[in-house]
């Protein structure tokens, strides 16, 4: 087997493999986690709304970072759920704490992203309506 020290600086085969494995993790989460599907769909709606409402490039960048962070947290939460189930197969208060706090992290950042979205979109919507 190739030693890690002998590897070239950039191996396209390894790079392709790492993209493939990462996309499998994303596809698994999409198939199995309703919240991930909801957040991804919300991201598409936000992106389209940003184009229609002439949201500035800087604000779109802020929205992209907020949405990207929520989706990353969803993926990490899925990973934590699986690690927990692998290690703890019985009902255990510690498993509950691990899963609930990981879910709490997703919730806190989702709320933060929603606030960012409201700050950006509400004035524009109000301007159109009144
Ligand atoms: N082994 C366990 N011991 C104690 N409580 C657990 C255990 N596994 C899950 N729980 C509790 O049940 C809740 C739901 O757990 P579950 O693994 O079904 O995750 P979930 O939030 O339903 O995930 P999903 O998003 O996949 O539906 C957890 O947040 C936790 O409070």
From TrEMBL:
Binding-site list for a divalent metal cation: 33, 81
UniProt-annotated catalytic positions: 74 (proton acceptor)
Record text on cofactor binding: Mn(2+), Zn(2+), Cd(2+) and Co(2+) support activity to lesser extents.
Protein's GO biological process: phospholipid biosynthetic process
A single GO cellular-component term on record: plasma membrane
A GO term, aspect molecular function: metal ion binding
Annotated TM spans: 101-122
Protein's membrane topology: Multi-pass membrane protein
Cofactor: Mg(2+)
Binding-site residues for ATP, renumbered to this chain: 14, 21, 33, 81, 99-100
Record: residues binding substrate: 14, 74
InterPro entries reported for this sequence: DAGK (IPR000829), DAGK_sf (IPR036945), UDPK (IPR033717)
Pfam family, one: DAGK_prokar
Gene3D superfamilies xref list: 1.10.287.3610
Predominant location category: membrane
Signal peptide: none
UniProt keywords, alphabetically: ATP-binding, Cell membrane, Kinase, Lipid biosynthesis, Lipid metabolism, Magnesium, Membrane, Metal-binding, Nucleotide-binding, Phospholipid biosynthesis, Phospholipid metabolism, Transferase, Transmembrane, Transmembrane helix
PANTHER family in alphabetical order: DIACYLGLYCEROL KINASE (PTHR34299:SF1)
Similarity comment text for this entry: Belongs to the bacterial diacylglycerol kinase family.
The name this protein goes by in its record: Diacylglycerol kinase
Organism: Alkalicoccus saliphilus
């Amino acid at each position: 087997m190739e030693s890690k020290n002998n590897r070239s600086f950039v191996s396209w085969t390894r790079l392709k493999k790492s993209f493939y494995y990462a996309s499998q993790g994303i596809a698994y989460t999409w198939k199995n986690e309703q919240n991930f599907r909801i957040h991804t769909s919300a991201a598409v709606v936000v992106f389209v709304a940003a184009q229609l409402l002439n949201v500035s490039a800087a604000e779109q960048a802020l929205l992209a970072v907020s949405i990207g962070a929520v989706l990353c947290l969803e993926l990490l939460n899925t990973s934590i759920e699986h690690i927990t189930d692998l290690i703890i197969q019985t009902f255990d208060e510690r498993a509950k704490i691990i899963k609930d706090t990981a879910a709490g992290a997703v919730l806190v950042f989702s709320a933060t992203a929603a606030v960012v979205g409201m700050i950006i979109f509400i004035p524009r919507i109000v301007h159109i309506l009144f």
